[in-house]
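LOG
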Amino acid sequence: MKPISHNQDIKTINPSILYYGTPVVLLNTLNEDDTVNISPISSSWALGDCLVLGIGITGKAFENMKRHSECVINVPGPSMWENVERLAPYTGKNPVPAEKKQNGFTYQKDKYEISGLTPIESIRVKPTRIRECPIQIEAEVRHIRIPDHASYFAIVETQAVQVHVHQDKLLGENHIDPTKWSPLIYNFRHYFGLGDHLGKTFRAET
């Protein structure tokens, strides 16, 4: 089919952000004194047991993951958006990096207290999990890379080593019920849940 040359219904733009709708993750990393830092992140994807995270290099999470190669990837549901937003303006870095200070961030060490969330011990890694998150993934950092074309963030490859799920979200022994589970979506800096169930792929096991 020959491509059309233009379309009046489509406009070329230059957006400041490209958060076109990705799940929110609360990333737990280990501080120097064995306390836990919680970082809300909006850039991640998973394939098999590999989970790839995009994190800013000026934050505490990046500093912690370079020093200690364990983390917990907590996946909140839509009802937790206010807990996530309570964390949003805070950083675990002290002093606050200039770029973060310019963007309105302030220092807060106890992220559990400020967010109203509850720590629960992990099994395979040192950082604690977040009790309220329906999915909690203990992981180990395998590789950290800073892109040549974008030096302000890092691509962090992790491997899941233990997965925990709220029982009311399960279907059978090892499947998450997609009709009962919905991630919190970060959509152009607004929070959303999923819409109605539309169907399933031919590879779905349930």
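LOG (cont.) second protein
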Amino acid sequence: MTDNEALTEDQVGDRVAGLLLAAGGGRRLGGRPKALLEHRGHPLVEHAVGALRAAGCARVHVVLGARAEDVRARAALDGCVLVDNPDWEQGMGSSLRAGLHSLTGTGARAALVCLVDQPGIGGQAMARVRAAYRDETSLASAAYGGVRGHPVLLGAAHWAGTAATATGDRGARAYLREHEAEIALVECGDVARPYDIDTEADLVHLE
């Protein structure tokens, strides 16, 4: 019997923490932090937290960086653990390291890692990837037409290795490439659209 089969749904929710990377400064968006871009009447960071909770993550850690105080003031993030990343300008890797470090000692056995600038990926896709959790050695990723994307499930056994290779804007990319044979791909192309909000042209995706 696997660890996952022995647990209730609520217990799995406690074991798999949501980790939202929301520190980016939106350099190609004229310096507008992505966390505060409006989508369906709410900041993107709220939208992403809601999706993680809809996916069953009882614990959600949110990594903040650019204009962190404005995000705290303007976004409803009650119940989330807010993690400040003073090195956010160094890229996504620093936020991933900060987020994984914040989960150490919490009892979480895996992190469901999501990006704040992908509002086309909602709770349904996140729940599918979360369901791939078995134990702390689990490693899974959403796939779109067979191509690996977000979110990514990192069992706690992979956190140290991921943090050691997370530099610049690569995030977990280097670690996942090294461990590609271990990754369970979870097809989500039928329920999500994996676009990024990176440039002014991408703002058409916001509603």
